[in-house]
């Protein structure tokens, strides 16, 4: 009898719930299935994911083999069953939302038909969507009461996984797929991948930055956040391990703030379960009638970091250069796209999907709907971020701006947030012509703010049937 451990976004051995159970089986196949339809070839986000898979495959190769399959998931499962007729048990960590959830539902049908015993687990979150609810039939919509309940719930302990290499199939079942995968990842730049790197990141964050996280986390130039998001996305680190490591540290305000961020991650997963269509549709129905301008030139300028608003530009260039963006800047750039440029948040969400090495559908859609004021418990539509004030507050000396907007590197601090305020003589003196070497602001924030508020109000009135 043969068992399959089907890896997804849980690319690790230690503290992997499904693998913990699968590792007790006598004849075990380790599987990763690549569905080309799910990936945008060449996008930094997906390249980063493949780099993690490739690293995991190499690490496992020391004692076992990660079998790779390519194609439609159901066809792959069928092929595997034909190649291994003794297959009668499957282990995996289930997805509660989006593509993963629908794939799991289809796979369940296949397993039922084939009489393959399913062992599915919740592994990715501290609490699955069903665990923290207002009542058995009602999900929370607002973060604070959710957080209160979430805090009270007991968090699971990490699991010690011991692989028995003698029980794991080492010969390649589908060599052609392994060749195909090797080709796919041939030019993929490797990041600091793997469980070891992820655990080292956690340890150094706890040692250096956790205690002051509450004070430093909002300032991009300090770079004091954990950078664990990309490891959480691929599962190179387990959320239970993170939590239990935190519990062994002194109970500081820094730690409490950090734990609350981990709760936001669970919250957005739960929101995605309760609003399965949130990628395509604003959650708040009264904001479904906003008239977006969707100006292509503006969108391109935003993507390229050429808006003339230095902090927005620095942030967008950070994303392009590194595949990651600081949380404060994600809020600022998302607000700028939707409220200042009046571009539909779904374009921004899709762009982040392609670019972010930590892309996570629940958190990304949640973040975008928050910034666009269309989500549940989102920023109110009339509280619009002023990109200049945000810049003065969170990058006071412009150190972050200067790192990514090199053409502004030498201008004095007093002009760094609004370089267009320099006189022609000052521009000459500092070796830059605004409007040529760096753009003039593409919009007038005050005017656009008024316009955005009017568009949101129109949508509300339209929804109520008053227009
Ligand atoms: C528009 C927008 C888009 C976003 N897209 C993503 C995304 O695709 N993937 C992603 O992981 N996060 C996303 N976030 C949330 C947040 O910006 C990132 O999790 C964070 O910047 C990652 O850096 P870090 O690991 O250093 O965070 P830290 O500050 O060290 O936080 C620790 C962990 O807590 C979780 N977390 C922190 N803030 C949030 C939050 N607001 N929502 C959900 N989880 C959070 C993450 O897992 C993060 O790794 C988005 C936020 C916004 C406003």
How does the SSE layout of this entry go?
Layout: E1 2-7, H1 17-22, E2 28-34, H2 44-61, E3 66-70, H3 73-83, E4 87-93, H4 98-114, E5 117-121, H5 143-152, H6 175-184, H7 195-208, H8 213-216, H9 229-234, H10 239-247, H11 253-274, H12 296-304, H13 310-322, H14 327-340, H15 345-355, H16 361-371, H17 387-394, H18 399-404, H19 424-429, H20 445-464
The structure holds flavin-adenine dinucleotide.
Task: Note the total helix count.
Answer: 20
On the 0 to 100 scale, the average pLDDT is 97
| Order of strands in the sheet with most strands | 3-2-1-4-5
In this structure, how is the largest beta sheet organized? 5 strands, parallel
Could you spell the SSE succession in H and E letters?
EHEHEHEHEHHHHHHHHHHHHHHHH
List cofactors, ions and other ligands: flavin-adenine dinucleotide
- Cα-atom Rg, whole angstroms? 24 Å
Summarize the structure.
The protein has 467 residues and is of the alpha/beta class. The protein has helices at 17-22, 44-61, 73-83, 98-114, 143-152, 175-184, 195-208, 213-216, 229-234, 239-247, 253-274, 296-304, 310-322, 327-340, 345-355, 361-371, 387-394, 399-404, 424-429, 445-464, and strands at residues 2-7, 28-34, 66-70, 87-93, 117-121. It is 48% helix and 6% strand.
Description:
- One of its GO terms (molecular function) is deoxyribodipyrimidine photo-lyase activity.
- This is Deoxyribodipyrimidine photo-lyase.
- Its cofactor is FAD.
- Its EC number is 4.1.99.3.
- By secondary structure, this protein is of the alpha/beta class.
- The chain has helices at residues 17-22, 44-61, 73-83, 98-114, 143-152, 175-184, 195-208, 213-216, 229-234, 239-247, 253-274, 296-304, 310-322, 327-340, 345-355, 361-371, 387-394, 399-404, 424-429, 445-464; strands at 2-7, 28-34, 66-70, 87-93, 117-121.
- The chain contains 20 helices and five strands.
- A five-stranded parallel beta sheet has the order 3-2-1-4-5, sandwiched between helices.
- β2 (28-34), α2 (44-61) and β3 (66-70) form a beta-alpha-beta unit.
- α3 (73-83) runs parallel beside α4 (98-114) and α15 packs antiparallel against α16 (361-371).
- The radius of gyration is 24 Å and the shape is globular.
- Residues 217, 225-229, 232-233, 261-262, 264-265, 268, 327, 330-331, 334, 352, 356, 358-360, 363-364, 366-368, 371 line the site of flavin-adenine dinucleotide (FAD).
